[in-house]
Design brief:
Radius of gyration: 42 Å
Structural class: alpha+beta
Largest sheet: 8 strands, antiparallel
Number of strands: 98
Number of helices: 31
Strand content: 25-35%
Shape: globular
Distance between the termini: 73 Å
Length: 1687
Amino acid sequence: MRKALLSLLCFVISLFSVAQPQSGKVYNLKNVGKGNSLGITSLFKVIGVTTNEDDLSQQWYVESVSGSTFSMRNLASGFYLQGNNSTSGAWNLVSAKVDLEYTNDSGAFAIRQSDHTNTHGYLHIDGSGNAVSWTYSGNNNTLWQFEEVSYTQDQLDKVLNSVNNLVVSNETLAAYQTALNALFADKACTQLKVSCTEAEMKSNANYLALPATLQQMVLKVLADSWEEANGDQSKQKWDSDYAKKYRVQLYEPYNEPEAAAKALKINAHTNLNNPTGIYSTAQSLMYVMVEGEIKDGASLYLASYIGHGKLGGYSEGVELKSGLNVVPSYFANSNYCINYVVHTFDTSDNKSGKAACKRKLSDYPALKIHIEGGHINGYYNKVGDALYSPDKNANWDYLEARATQTDLTVLGKYITLQFPLNDADTEGYKGLANYLNDIVNVEDAINEWDNVMMWERLLMGVMDKTTTEENALKSPYSSAPYVIDYIGNNGDAYACDYGDYYNVHGLSFGVGGNSYMYGSWDHCGYHYSTMSGVIESLPTNAGSHWGPGHEIGHQHQGPLNMRGLTEVTNNLFSNVVLWYYGESTSRYNGDEGALSNVLKAFNTQGSDFFTNNIWAQTHMYYKLFLYYHVLGKNPKFYPVLFEMLRQDPMTIEYEQSGAKSLLHFYKKCCLASGEDLTEFFRAHGFFRVMKDRFVGDYSNANYNMTQEEIDAAIAEVKALKYPENIAVLFINDATGETIESHKGDNLDFYGESTICAELGSYASFATATAPEYTYSLSGLSITMEGTGGIGFAIYNENNEILAFSDKKSFSVSADALLQLTTGQARVVAMQANSTSVICQNILENASTEQLRTELASLLGSAEAVLNLRDATGTKVGYYHSAYMTSLEEAYNTAKYVYDSSNEASYLSAYNGLLQEYSAFLVNTDAKIALDTDHTYILVNKAYPDRLMYIDGDNNVKAQAVANSYAYIWYFEPSDTEGKYYVKNAATSTYVGKISRGSQLYASATETKDAEKYELRDMGNGNMALIAGQGMHCSSSQGHIIVGWDADSDATQWTIVDVQAYDELYKLAAKTEALIDAVAENITEAGNTKVALTADDYYSNATYTAQNNSDKFTSYSVLCDGKPSTYFHSDYNESTAPNENHYIRMDMGQGNALQSFKLNYTTRESGNVYALTSIAIDGSNSDASDPSAMEWNTIANISSGLPTANNSAYTSSHLISDIPYRYIRMRVLGANGGKVKGYPYFVLSELGLSKVDYTAQLKEEYTSIDKSLVTEAYKAKLGAETLSLTENAQEALAFLQTKHDALFNAKRSVYGEQLDALMEERVKTGLGYPKQTSAEYIALLEATTVEEFNAALPAYKSCDDIEVPQPGTFLRIKAIDGWNDDAPYLGSKNSSGNSRAEYVAEADASTIFYFDGAQLVSYGSGNYLVDNNNFLGYNGVKPSGAKFTFHAAANDKFGACNISFKEGGRWLYVNQNNYTDAGNGTPTADGYCFNLEAVTSIPVNVTAVGYASFYSPVAVALPEGLNAFRVSETTGKYAKMEQIAGIIPANTGVILQGEAKTYDLTVGGEADAVENLLSGTVASEYISTPSYVLSAQGTPAVIGFYKAKLNKDANGGEGTTHFLNNAFKAYLPVDGHNVRCLVFDFGTETSIIETENGKVKTENSAVYDLVGRRVQNAQKGIFIVNGKKVVR
C-alpha cells in the first residue's frame, strides 16, 4: 500500500557469491548495481571500471580481518582504500592502513570506514563512475560482491614485493642527494662541477652511488647530448634539443583553482597548466630534481593521468620538495604534470572578490625542474619560457611524428587543448593529427582558443591593465578608447586588478559517447564529432566560436546566474566572443531573441522573466553589452557588475527568494551603470509577483517574490536619483542594416538568425533622426506611421512601461489597450538619449473616411471575438458567453452607426466600442482556459469530422469520432510554463518527440521519455501543439499525425473539454451497477401515443406561395387521422428557408420525452416526396423565437423509411440524453426535389409514442419505488447515446439526479447500520483520508454492510490523507504507545544539545505554524531546522528544506511521516525526549506522528493592558479584546483605528484588554485593511527603521518606541538590525525623530457615568492619553475600550 516507501531491496541469492572478505586473499570487488568493478586510475583516484580480473588496479588484497572489520590494499599501487564521512564525498587511496567495516545485506556487502558514522558514508559508484559515499538502503550501487582472484602464495609475494620495492627509503634518498650534490653545481642537475672523461666519471664514487637512471643522466650532462630513444621503438628518436627541452623545464606558478573559483564565483578550470611531456612505464621510478625554493603559500606536486585524461585537484599527486624526489610509478603510460600553485586567494570567513586576494604570483619565481625516468611524449607550448622559444607550426610536426600517448597536449596562454591525437582513439572520428597543420595551422587554432578565453576574462574584469588595454579593442561606434575598460584604477570599492592573482588555464577536452558539448567545473567537453568545428573552423568561422564561447561561458556565468538561466547567462559570453571575433552579428536563434518575443511574454497574463524564451533572455544581457560597451556609454559596466556580484552575490537556492536574486541583480545593474534601469527590467518581467513559481533547468528552484519586495527594490533605486534609461531596451544588431566591425569591414548576419527589428541597430543608434509618428489601433495591434527614433513604448500615468517595440507594428495587452482607450496611457517614440516624443492617434485629426475605415476595422476585431462565444464553456481559447453582454451591446450600437453611415457618430461609436472591447479582453476570466485536471478531445481545423486518437500500436492519428477513450487526452503540466505532456486516456501513454513528416507515437509510459508541447493560441479559437514542429493531420498519409508547420490549418485544433462526458460515462456504469443490484430485470411496458393537437406543431417551411392543394392551412392535417390530408413543405424559391426543413412537436410543460418512437404516414396519393433521411432533435429552449432555439441530435435515420404512398412508419425505440419538451423531425433527404439546396417533402400524419418500462425488483429491495429504477434506467440509456462531440453537461446533471434518487433509496434499506458504522469507524481531520479520496467515497457509496466492510481496509490504508495546508496551526504528537510521557514536539532545544525537545502538555509551546514549506514554533518563534542528524531550532529560515507530510509507511491509521528534505530525511522521536533525523524508509513507530489542528491560538495581554500581534491568517477576536491598526503617523502621534470582529490575514495589530491570556479563533474572512503596522511570523532581524510597542518610564507610558538597531542581519552584535519577535507587529516608519509615537484614538468622545467619584467602566480598564493605566479616574479625558471618554 505504501509502494514508494515500503519497497524492499531483494536479491536472487543464487546469482551472487556470498563470500565475505578473508585475510590474505585477493578480491575483485563487483558492484551489484553497475555490474562493474572497483579500480583505480591514478595513485589516489578510485572509480568504477569495466571488469578485468587480471588487471592489478582492480585487485584488492585484504589484510587483518577481525569480525566485520578489515583493510584493503590495491595491488597496483600498494595503497590502502580510505572512506569519506561526508555524503557524496570521494573515496581515495592512502599510504597508511585504514580500517573498514562491512554490513551483509541479503548476500551483498555495504562498506564504509569503521570509525565513520554517517549513514550516507558507504562506498558507492555514482552516475559519473566515481567512488563516493552514499546510503546503501534501497540502492544497489552501494552494494558489493567479493569475487576471489586466485593467487598462490609465491605469486602474491612476488606482486607485494614488487609494489614494496618501489618505495625508496629516506636513507637511500639522502645518499642519492649527497652524491648529486657532489657531482652537480645546481639542484636541477644540469651543470656538473667537474670536467672529466666518461671513463673517469664511471669510476667516480658519487656516480657509482646513484641508481642506473641517474647514472645515465650524469653521462648525458657530461656529454651535453640529451638525445634519447622513443618509448615506441617503431617511432623516431628525440634529438638532443627536444629531449632536453622536456627533461629540463621552467615551471611557472599558477593560482590554486578551487580558491579562485570561490573568490571569483566562477568554475575552477584545470590544473593542467604545466604539462611535462614525460610519461612513465609501469612499476618504475621517476626522479624529479627541483631547483629553487618552494616559498610559503605555494605548493608543488607531481600529478598524472593515464591515456586520454585530465588532472584532478592540485594536491592529487605526490608532493615535491627542493632537490631530489623519487616517485614510484605504478601504472604504465602515466602522463606527468607539475602542479605548481600559489594560494593567491584567501576565502576564509567567506571573503570573496578583491577582498580575498592575498598572495601575488609575481612574488613566486618559476622553478627549474629536471625529470628523469620514463619516456618523452612532448607537448606543444605556445608561450615558451626563459629556456625555450615558443613552439611554432614546425614544432608540432616534429612532435606529432614522435608522440606515443593518446593525447598530445597543446598548451596556450589561457587554454589547454586535450584531444586524442589519432583517429583510433576518437570513436570513428578524426583525431587531432588530422587537423593541425594539415587543415589548420596549430598556431592559428590555439591563438583563437586563447582569444575566446581572453575575451571572456576581459568581460569579467579579471585581467591586468596592460592585457586589458592591449586586447579590449575600440568600437567604431564609440569615442571611448576601449570596448571594455580596466577598472583597477576606479578609486572605489569595486576597483580591482586580478592580473597578479588569477592565472590558470581553461581545459578544452575531447569526449565521446553521448555527449556533445558541455561546460563543467574543471573542463569543457567537446565531442570528437565537433572537432571539425572547434579545431578546423575556429580560426576562420564565426559560428564555430559559439560552442566554445557558450561552454566556457558556463564556467564563468556564476556571478550572473540564477536557477533557470543556466543556458542563458553563458550566452552573453558567446555573443561577446562573436563581437570580438568581428565577423558576424549576434545569435538570435531565428527570431527567438527578438524584442517582439519579450513583448509577447510581457503581454501574457501571469508571466514573469522566466516566461521569456532563452534567446529573449539572452539578449537582455547582450543589450547591456551593446549599449554600455560597444556604444561606449560605460565601458566599465560589466567588469564592475561582476565585481559587485562577487562581493555581494545573489543568494541562490531551491526555495528561491526573488528579492535575493532577480531584484538583487536589478539593483546591482543600476549601481554598475549609474543609471535607473527600472523600466528596462520591468519590460523583461523582473517585477512580476511570483508565488511558488517552479523554474527548472540543471537545478530547480521554487521562486517567490512579493509586491512589497518589488516596491522596496524599486524605491531603493529611485532613491539614488539616477537618470532613467530605457533606450538600452531597443538596441540590437538585427535590423539587417550594414554594421562595421572593429576590424573595419562589415559584419555578416549570424547563421540562422533572421532580421527581427526595424529600429534600434547599434550602427545607427546614436545618429537616428528625431521621431515623428502617429499611430492607429486594430484590435490589440498598433501600427506606427512616421520616421526616426529607436523604438516605441507605451507608458501609464506612473511612467511605467506597458508595451514596447523596435518594429512599427506590435501587439499590446488588453490592459494596455484599456488604459490607452481611457486616457491613462500614452504612446511615445523613443530617442537614443532616453527622451521620448508623444505620438498622436491618427483619429485625432482623421477625415470622415479615415474614421469609417478605423470603425470598420474595430468592428471586425470585435466581431471576431463575439464569434468565439461558447455557451458550454468547453472550448479552450473561446469565450464564456456570460461575459459578452456589454461588448455585444457596444458592437450593435457601433454596427448600427456604421451601417446607417451616421458620420457624426463615427468617433463616439468607435471610442465606445474600443473601450468595451479592451475592457473585455483584459478580463482574463472571460476566456476559456485549459484545466489540467480535465480531459479533452482535439478536433482538426482542416478536417472537422476528424478527432485525434491513438490506435492499438500507439500511432497517433485523426479519424471520425467514436465513443472511445482513445479519443480523449490529458494535458499534464510540465516544469516549463505553457508546455504540457499530452497523455491518452485509454492507454495512459504520453506523446513522444515529433519529427517533420514522420508518424507521431504516444508510447512513453513516463514523462521523462515524453515530449513537452507548447499549447499555442493561433487565434480564432484554434490551438496548435508544438515541440519544434506542430501536430499535423496529414491527409496524404492517411490522416496520421506528423510534424509540420504551425500555420497550416491541419496543424490547428479546437480543443474541447469533455470532462463532463468522461464523468457521464463513468456515472452511467455506476448507475448500471446500481440498477443490477436492485432489479432482476427491466422490460418495455408498452407504448403510449402522445396526444398532440394542431397547436403543438410548428414548421420552418410551410408552403403559402399559391392557393392550391399544397398550400398550408393548418397543422391539424398531421394529427387528424386522414391519409387524404397532408403537409407539404415549401418548394417556392423565394419563400423557402435557407436550411433543412423540419417539423417541431411540443410535448407541453412538464411532459418532456426521453424514451419514445416516431410515427408518420406518407401521402395517400400523388407525388409521394417520401423521406429518405431524417434527424431527430430535442430542445428545451424558449420556443418564442424558433431561429434561436438550441437543438441536440437524438438520432439520425436513413434506412427503413417507406417510399410508397400511404405507408405508415414507426421508428425503433429512440432514447435521448435528457428528456426534451420539443422534438423535431429534420429532413436531410427526400426522393422529390430540392429548393435552395434543401429537400422538400410531404407527410399525411406525424406523431410520437412514449415508451414505458417496468422493473422486477429483487426480494430485499421490494420496498423501493419501481419508478426510481426505470427512470434511472432511461437516464442511463440516454447517456450512452451521447457522442463525444456533444455537450454532456445537462445529461450528466440529469443522470446524477436519477442515480442519486435510486442510490438513496437503496441505501435507506440499511441506512441506520451504515450511519452507525460511519460514526464508529470513519475519522476525519489531519492525517486521516481526505473526504475527497476514492477510499472515503467508497465508504459513502456503500449501500450494504458487506460493501462497507469490503471498502474499509482500503480506507484504513489510504495514502491520500489530509495534510496541513499553508496557513495551518497544528501540534505534532508521537503516536500512542511511543514516548507517551512526552509525546508533543515542543518549542525549544533540549539542554545539552541542539535537538528539539518533546514535552508532556499540549500548551502554547507545542503549537506550530506551517507556511507551506517551513514549521515555525509559536512558542519560540524559531524555525524547525535540520541539524545534520537531528532537528533543532534556529532563528534563520532554512534553505533547501521543505516539510512535507506523508501517510505513515507502516500503515498506522491516522498517522503521518514528516520529511524535511528532498530525497528523504524524516522526523523521528528519540525516546530520550528529543528529535532525530532519519534516512531511508520510515517504517518504525518513532517516525509516526498524529497531527492535531489548532483552532485557537493564545495571546497574552500584559499588565499594561496592551500587546502587539501579527497573524498570517485571519483570526477572530474574543469578547473583551480590542484590536487596532495604525492608519497614519503625524508628528508624535500614531492614529489608531479599531478592527472589529476578525483581524484580516497578514495584519499587524495592537491588542487592548484586561491583563490575561486570550484565545483567538483561527479562521474567518475579512477584507484587507490599510495599515502601517507590519509583522513577522518567525523571529526576524529587521533593518527597516521602525517603532515597536513598549511601556517605558515611571509611571510607564505605553506607545510605539523607536527600535534599537543593535544587531546585524544574522543576529550578532551590530548597528543595522533589530529583533522583531515571532507573531509580533512593528511599525516601519522613517523620518520621525521622536522617541515615542503616542496612541491617537481619534476624536470620538462620550460622556460616561460615575459612581462615587470614579469612572463607571463596567470592569473595563481605564488609561490616560499617554497610555498609562488609571485606577481612580478624576475629571478629564480617558481611554476606555479604545474610545475617548470625558468625565
